């Protein structure tokens, strides 16, 4: 099974954004050693506990410190930006790191309403123009505007030998249809969706038209916490759960430690809410996690599964990915 990494570059409580970004680079290096197919880093703006606001900067840094793992953004929040600049940026990365660059394309704001206003003059207009923006981005990447188009002579230089691979990321029928109509690969964010992913992925495959890719290509993104024991995995889950609670209240100050999460004075309803974690996340030992991942791959019919893991200690996050890689025998593939 092909497995990949989605990194939100979490900032542990009491630590700095610099440390979190350095940890992201180390995670990409470890992912490469462990045999993961690709590493994507997320884009967020002014969100407490998440460090990466400029994935394109991190990808240059990470690319220079890795050799084979595919790299990308999950996702470029296209409503904020002009397609030409995005094409230039990722073409430059693809020139530096040939045949290793993906462009994950999303339409979420990535932050608060105030941060959205600071980033772009009219975000909602950008959302409405997403199909047009996606089409323009693909045309810039492939330099294939019609001769009578105003951009027919404009090139998104430098032009790499192998263009970046575009993926549309989403959690809805609209995103699936957009990917199908543009002939791009599609990544469904199960970890952040309550929608029927099976129906959405089937919709993408049914309506797919040849374009950038010749046939449908899919990723399912899931939230996973893997520990050597069930108890360890549960401890990691409580830390992740408390961070979500604090974020919802506007009280988050980074990812809390296991000790803080275990001793936190939860209300009865909050303790009950922890059970929902097990419905939306995969939590357990390597065998438990691998069994659930295999079931998900069959259920959703995807080509690849991408894993997002958030913990207080980087060592726990790295170990979670390692345990999964060993269970799937990816280690030899990565040369570790």
- Relevant CATH superfamily: Luciferase-like domain
Side by side, the strands of the main sheet go 1-2-3-4-5-6-7-9
Structural class: alpha/beta
CATH architecture verdict:
Alpha-Beta Barrel
Number of domains: 1
Could you please say which CATH topology applies here?
A: TIM Barrel
String of helices and strands: EHEHEHEHHHEHEHEHHHEHEHH
Task: Tell me about this structure.
The structure is a single chain. With 336 residues, this protein is of the alpha/beta class. The chain has one domain (2-229, 281-334): TIM Barrel, CATH 3.20.20. Helices cover 48% and strands 16% of the residues. The chain is built from 14 helices and 9 strands. It has helices at 17-34, 55-64, 83-96, 113-119, 123-128, 130-142, 173-182, 197-207, 230-249, 258-263, 268-280, 286-300, 314-327, 331-334, and strands at 2-7, 38-41, 70-77, 101-106, 165-170, 185-189, 218-226, 281-284, 304-308. Helix 7 (173-182) links the parallel strand 5 (165-170) and strand 6 (185-189). Residues 1-303 form the Luciferase-like domain. InterPro entries: Bact_Lucif_Oxidored (IPR050766), CmoO-like (IPR019949), Luciferase-like_dom (IPR011251), Luciferase-like_sf (IPR036661). To bacterial alkanal monooxygenase alpha and beta chains.
């Amino acid at each position: 099974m092909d497995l990949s990494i989605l990194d939100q570059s979490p900032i542990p409580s009491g630590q700095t954004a610099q440390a979190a970004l350095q940890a992201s680079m180390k995670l990409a290096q470890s992912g490469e050693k462990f045999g993961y197919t690709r590493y994507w880093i997320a884009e967020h703006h002014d969100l407490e506990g998440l460090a990466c606001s400029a994935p394109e900067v991190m990808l240059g840094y990470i690319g220079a410190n890795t050799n084979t793992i595919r790299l990308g953004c999950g996702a470029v929040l296209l409503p904020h930006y002009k397609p030409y600049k995005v094409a230039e940026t990722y073409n430059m990365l693809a020139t530096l790191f040939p045949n290793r660059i993906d462009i994950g394309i999303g339409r979420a704001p990535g932050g608060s309403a105030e941060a959205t206003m600071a980033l772009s003059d009219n975000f909602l207009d950008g959302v409405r123009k997403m199909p047009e923006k996606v089409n323009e981005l693909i045309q810039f990447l492939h330099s294939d505007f019609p001769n009578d188009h105003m951009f027919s002579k404009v090139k998104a230089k430098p032009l790499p030998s192998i263009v970046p691979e575009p993926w549309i990321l989403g959690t809805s029928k609209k995103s699936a249809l957009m990917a199908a109509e543009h002939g791009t690969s599609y990544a469904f964010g199960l970890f952040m969706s309550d929608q029927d992913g099976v129906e959405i992925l089937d919709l993408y495959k049914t309506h797919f038209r040849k374009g950038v890719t010749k046939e449908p290509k899919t990723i399912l993104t899931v939230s996973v916490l893997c520990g050597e024991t069930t108890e360890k995995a549960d401890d990691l889950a409580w830390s992740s759960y408390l961070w979500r609670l604090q974020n919802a209240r506007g009280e988050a100050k980074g990812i809390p430690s296991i000790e803080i999460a275990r001793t936190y004075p939860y209300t009865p309803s909050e303790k009950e809410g922890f059970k929902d974690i097990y419905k939306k996340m995969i939590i357990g030992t390597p065998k438990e996690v691998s069994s659930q991942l295999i079931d998900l791959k069959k259920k959703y019919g995807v080509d690849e599964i991408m894993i997002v893991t958030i913990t207080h200690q980087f060592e726990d996050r790295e170990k979670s990915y390692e345990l999964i890689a060993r269970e799937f025998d990816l280690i030899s593939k990565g040369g570790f």
